[in-house]
Structures are given as C-alpha cells and as structure tokens.
Amino acid sequence: MSLPRTPYQTVTPDYFARRGLRRYAGVFSLWALGVGAVISGHYSGWNLGLLAGGWGGYALAASIIAVMYLGLVFCIAEMAAALPHTGGAYSFARASMGPWGGFVTGLCENVEYVLTPAVIVSFLATYLAAVFETPPAWLPAYWIAAYAVFVGLNVLGVELSFRVTVVITLASLACLVVFWISALPVADFGRHALNIGAGPGGTPVELPQGGGPLLPFGLHGALAALPFAVWLFLAIEQLPLAAEEAREPSRDIPRGIVAGLLTLFVSAGLTVWLNASVAPGSFQLGGSGEPLLDGFRATFGSGLAKLLALVACIGLIASFHTILFAKGRQIYSLSRAGYFPRFLSITHPRHKTPYIALIAGSAVALALLFGLWFGMGAEKGSAVIQGMLLNMAVAGAMLSYLLQAISFLVLRARLPGLARPYRSPLGRAGAVVTIAIASVTLVYQLLDPVFVSGVLGVGAWFAAGIVWFALAGRHRLVLSPEEAFALEARRSVAD
C-alpha cells in the first residue's frame, strides 16, 4: 500500500524573493549556536536523573547518551554537508523517505523547538522571581517579556542574532568555568556525590556521610536515568537549520557541530562531577531546580545568593535565544515548502529573517504555557510546565533522532554517489548505535509515569499535524530547494 501522492503547485515569480535569507555565519558563530542551545542543560535539568540512578548510574547514562550524540552528530554533519538547506532534519528525511517521511520528521523537530524554549523560559522566570522577590502570580510577565525581547533580537537580523549568541554563549561557559575552579578545592566526591542509597522498596535515601555505592539501583537505575541525561546535549542537532545563513555550509557546519559537541563533552563531564561533589550533594541536588546555584552557594556562601542567581540566568538566556533562532528556521523551512501554511515563511523585507515564523511559534508556546498555568492553577501549573512540556520536548527529540539516523542509512544505500564533502568517521555503525540508544531511551520514558503524559502529548501533536498534512498540506507543496534536490536525486537513481 502506497502513501497518497503529493503534487506540487506553481507559485508566483516573487515567491522565493519574499522568503530570502542572508548569509553571515562562520565556524565560530555556528559553534556558539550549537553550544549556546544546549548550555542551559548544564545549569538545570540534568540533575533530575540523580535520584533515578544514583551518581554512578547517572554518569553511566550520560556516557551512553554521549555515545548516541556522537553517532548522531557525525550522521548530521555528513548529511548537512551534502544537503546544505535550512530544512535540516526535514530535508534529510525528505530526500531519503519522500514527502511523508520529511513531514513526520519535521513534525518531531517542531515539537522539540516549540516546547524547549517554553520550558527554559519557565526556569528563567523562576530564577528572576527569586532575585526580584516577585509574587508567583506574576511569573507569566517574565515569560512575555523574555519572548518579546529575544524574538525581537532574532527578527532584527542574522548578524545581530549571531553576535548576541556568541557573547552569551561565551559568558555562560565562563560562568561554568568559575564554578569548576571554585569547586575543586572543596569537592568531596565520596561524601557528597555518593550520598544516595537504596531504601525500602528501592526508593532513594540520603546517606549523610556519603560512601554509598556507585550504582545503588543497578543497571536498571542507569537506564532509567537516560531521558534525564539527554538534557546535557539536547538541541546540538539544530545547526543544519542555519545552513542557508552560513557562508560555506558544506565546510562550516560539520566543523561547527563537531567542535560544539566536543566542548559539551568537557562541560558535561566537569559539571556532573563537580556539581555533585560539593554540598548539598547528589541526593538534594536530584530534586533541585537550580543545581548550579546550589553549587555556588557551597563555594561562595549564601550571602551572594541573589547575585549568583542572576549569573545562573546567563546559561538559560543563551539556550532560550539560540533555540528561538532554530524554531524560526525550522517553521520557515516547512512553510516555504508548503508543509505548513505558506505565509509563515515570509521573511522581513529589510532584515531577511523569518519573523512571522518566530512570532507564530512563540505565540503557540505562550498559549500552551498560559493554558497549563490557568488550567491547573498557578502553583501546580508551574510544576507541570517544567515536567510535562519538558518530557514532550525530549520525546520529540528522540523520535527525530531515530528518523535522522534512518535517513542517513537510506541515503547511504540509495544515493551512494551523492557528493559528500564530509563523511562520518563512524559510518553506518554510528547511525545504528544512535537508533538503538534513542529507542531504549524512548522505552524508558514510557516506563516512567511522569514521562508518559509528555509522550501522549506528543502523540496528540502528531495526530493534529498528520490530519492537516493529509487534508491540506500535501496538496500545497512547493518546489523549495529541499524538494527540488530530493526530486533530482530520485531521477538520478531512476536513470
């Protein structure tokens, strides 16, 4: 049984002129984009897996996830160099698996890039409310202000957007370096990092003097920590979305994404080791919404709490700004090709940025934030935002990783003669490992009752998207650069 045919429509001569982008980014800017998108995960979120596996279980999970991202990044680097289009994951899947494969893969990324900034802005609002002693009822004001400021920066031009990205990425890394240096003299790994034990029924208990086992919950605990470890690297895969704004995408994107991942490996390793090795230790850190701030309190004292909270906002701002960039380009590329309503891909006449896509994606995110906030009450709504939406973003990411790795394998099999300026040193094995680890991570999401609601939310998002594409989107496709490449590749195989 074959899927319905997807015809293409003729567009006006100025269609692509109204959707132009401007080239600016080099390797360093792309490196900053990748690292900046991820770095908030080293400030908060990563630590929530400590209670699932203990420090050793979490460290093992983080190592497994690091292997998955290594395989994924090499696959993406090869495909991005061969298909240097803004579509990213969607364009890879479109070339390998046709319009339906491209749309479903794009939908997976859409979940991730719409929801991840919403989760980050909720953490940012919590930090700012603590600094300025704002009543909880006013947290939504911080959401609106953050979206207004950083959507505005992204609209004002790719040059400004990348300059801001470089500055805040370097600042967020500098903040982490200060913490690592300050933590080294007072770190006590045995006492603080190993202070989790298995209590009655396998529940985590605190060991005041430390000295607990590396794997208090065994291998199962390590596997249960996999979804949490994803936050150490989530969103590094967004770099190909800047392909049409990179000066030499076939060269610069592979270099930028590999350098970014190596930077994150170092940062993740030092953060997981040192943040858990100072007071209050792994047990309390596992339930903290501000682990880096907890670490700063241990090294500098609580008297500087407000200043340190402001410093900790840097990493959240870096990721919020850079993932907004990715969201705009992701919606833009699907819209330009007709998968989403076409008006979303119109770019600013002066700044050449996808301002309608940025505004529309942000409006959807804010609508979800307010829906949860008012639907469940202010206090409970905040907890759900930082739980359910986070889990939905991770689920969308895992599905997109699976489909991108499959795209890599299909392209290698069907288009062996495709010009590949960069080739993955791990080859097909890297893609297979990525598929295996992403699949296991998704299974463990489904085994966790907290994550299940997020996965079901992704299912509802997919259902709505697929209905739209089946009834309308597939009849309105346009020969964008990604689509034209895919058709030409198919003809070359047929010949």
TrEMBL record:
Annotated keywords: Cell membrane, Membrane, Transmembrane, Transmembrane helix
Keyword tRNA-binding on entry: no
Compartments, record wording: Cell membrane
Segments passing through the bilayer: 24-43, 55-77, 113-132, 138-157, 164-183, 217-236, 257-283, 303-326, 355-376, 388-413, 425-444, 450-471
Keyword Translocase in record: no
Membrane topology: Multi-pass membrane protein
Pfam families per record: AA_permease_2
Gene3D superfamilies: Amino acid/polyamine transporter I
Domain of life: Bacteria
InterPro entries recorded: AA/rel_permease1, APC_superfamily
PANTHER family: AMINO ACID TRANSPORTER-RELATED (PTHR42770), MEMBRANE PROTEIN (PTHR42770:SF7)
The protein's name: Amino acid permease
Organism field: Reyranella aquatilis
